[in-house]
Amino acid sequence: METVKVTAETKATVVPATRKKRKLTADHWFAFSFLLPSIVLIFIFVYGFIGWTGYVSLSSWNSLVPDFSFAGLKNYAYLFSDFRFQADLRNTLVFTILFISVVIILGQFLAILLDQKLRGESIFRNIFFFPMALSFVVTGVVWQWLLNPSTGINLFLKKIGFESKWYTDTNILASLHWGKIEFGVPVAMIAVVIAAVWQMTGFAVAMYLAGLRAIPDEVREAARMDGATEFQIYRKIIIPLLRPITVSVIIIMAHISLKIFDLIYAMTGPGANFVTDVPGVYMFETTFRGNYYANGAAIAIIMLLSVALFIVPYLISSRKGES
Amino acid sequence: MQKKAGPLFYVFLAVFVFFVMFPFLWILLSSIKPLSELFGDRAFNWFTSHPTLKSYVSVFVNYPFLRYLWNSTVVATITTVYTVFVAAFAAYAIARLEFKGKAVILGIVLAVSMFPQIATISPIYMFVKKFGLTNSYLGLIIPYTTFALPLSIWLLVTFFRKIPFDLEEAAKMDGATPMQTYFKVILPLAVPGVFTTSILVFIAAWNEFLFSFTINTAEKYKTVPVGIAMFQGQYTIPWGEISAATVIVTIPLVIMVLLFQRRIVSGLTSGSVKE
After folding, report:
1. Where is the ABC transmembrane type-1 domain (chain A) (predicted)?
2. Fewer Cβ in 10 A, N or C end of chain A?
3. Do A46 and B13 count as a contact with CB atoms less than 8 A apart?
4. What is the C-alpha to C-alpha distance for residues A262 and A248, in angstroms, rounded to an integer?
């Protein structure tokens, strides 16, 4: 798979050089007509509408009646001083960090386990991958059921002596005052992280496995010859070689967690004191339930910028790597 | 590698397999238990002595679940066919043709596939409403373009790139036009890639929640994820029915993953794993 890709790409750069002059215009027109439908659709429906959202975020449209008078950054200023939005920022930060670290550690660990020439490896891979195909809504509903106090995990915890409503707990761990909110780890957020980890770890396992398979056996053989133990081989050679995959996993998981909506909406909702609220839920409710269109648009733009912060540098660097 | 995995590995794996499977098993058991065994101590009985399919019947009789399934099938199928068709042209141009600004176009497409849909939701809602498309299939198919099209282009580009260039060159030598080359040489070779892309786009469209929830609010046009999320009434949560509905939508996905796991994984990872 890898070799094919490499030859294809080298040829792509070699072949046209010889025939560029002759074919240029015809090929250009051809490429243009092939690209046109997709480009038009993407520009209208994505970039156009994002532009519109950006425009609304600078307007005064905070009621049922559209009002496009210019408000500057007023909506943004309001959000950053808003208790709910500050809580959202804390929750997103906590969720992103916990979710990504657990997915990376578990994903790497499980991929290495599966790479040990196990019996029935494909069955295990299938099992780990299952939750990935579900929608976040189904995951949210299932975990809401599992965490229901009169059945499932929590009834079991109660039996063995831990009676706590941790998944709706309004406590903030390691809290310190910051702005209007308590900054720290909301206990209830941990439940959401567990559900998200359950769903997404399989994806990280699949990516790490692909990465492990791409490492030639000679690398391990050579290290073994030099007397390295299996543990050393992983710690010193294999895991560092997997670093580019870790970067990809971080990017993919970060963009999922920064824009998360379905899972939380279906599982916990905003929660008391907004302990499990995220910008996506706030945006949806303030726009479609409260008719604060400009505020909602400002939240959407902040979400977009936070995702762009991750993906734009990644796209630029991976493009450089390609050429 | 010669070393064989020790028993400890299997113990570790078993723990994780349990963690992954537990929610599935729990929901499956909940779906066949009578209401009286759903809560309290009896919830821990692994096997119910009175298995019942009442929840399954209720899902179809008391709720328009069949309608939801049909709506999801229609919307996801049309979205998949139309976006993969449009995307195949663009992906071919990006993967196989040489022209200026190619990298920029690919970047624009890739960026879009990661953007939060929420940044387009309110203008799209206005747009759909203005054209009287709320509570219709078209009202979802059009917005689904925003994530399905970039996803299709992105996946297809990686598949098209894997097809050896020699064949295309040979076709050109024999005097084939680019159009002929595309339809007679490239497309037949790309069938597995197109197929994989279609599966992934279908799953994405099938699972979509935000647009569907906002745009199609009438019972008649709700899709499965919205239906499941909205099962809970004002005062009661019918967990038996919710479990049954969840099992019903999960089974096709589980079968799909079983059948096409290798393809799905390679499709998802090849775009993102840069070797």
Report:
1. 89-316
2. C
3. no
4. 23
Question: A210 to each of A87, A135, A189, A247, A285, how far by Cα in Å?
Answer: 38, 24, 31, 14, 40
> Minimal CA–CA distance to A66: which of B217, B117, B122, B213?
B122
CA distances from A269 to A86, A210, A281, B144, B235 (A): 17, 36, 8, 24, 16
CATH class for domain A89-284? mainly alpha
- This complex has an ipTM of 0.86
DSSP-assigned beta bridge partners for residue A59: A70
Interface of A with B in 35-94 (CB under 8 A): 35, 37-39, 41-42, 45-50, 52-53, 56
Q: Do the chains contact at A198 and B162, CB–CB below 8 Å?
A: no
Sort out which chain A residues have CB atoms less than 8 A from B275's CB and list them. 2, 5, 211, 214
Q: Which of chain A's residues have a Cβ under 8 Å away from the Cβ of B24?
A: 130
Look at A46 and B43 and tell me if their CB atoms are within 8 Å. no
* Contact pairs from chain A to chain B, CB under 8 Å: 301
Pairing label, strands A172-178, A181-186: antiparallel
Its domain, for residue B249, covers 61-270
pLDDT tens digits, one per residue of B77-103: 999 999 999 999 999 888 877 777 788
pTM, two decimals, is 0.87
Whether residues B146 and A45 touch (CB distance < 8 A) is answered with: yes
Measuring CA to CA, which residue among B180, B195, B186 is closest to residue B163?
Answer: B186
**Which residue, A309, A290, A299, A291, is CA-closest to A89?**
A299
Question: Is residue B5 included in any domain, yes or no?
Answer: no
Q: How far is CA A167 from the centre of its chain?
A: 22
* Closest alpha carbon to B72 in B219, B218, B221: B221
- Residues B83 and B186 occupy one common structural domain: yes
Dihedral pair phi/psi, residue A37, rounded to 5°: -55, -45
B6 in a structural domain: no
User: How does pLDDT run across B152-171, given as a tens digit for each residue?
Assistant: 998 898 888 888 888 888 88
Question: Are A31 and B97 an interchain contact pair (Cβ–Cβ within 8 Å)?
Answer: yes
Provide the domain count of chain B.
Answer: 2
Q: How far apart are CA B274 and CA A263, in angstroms?
A: 29
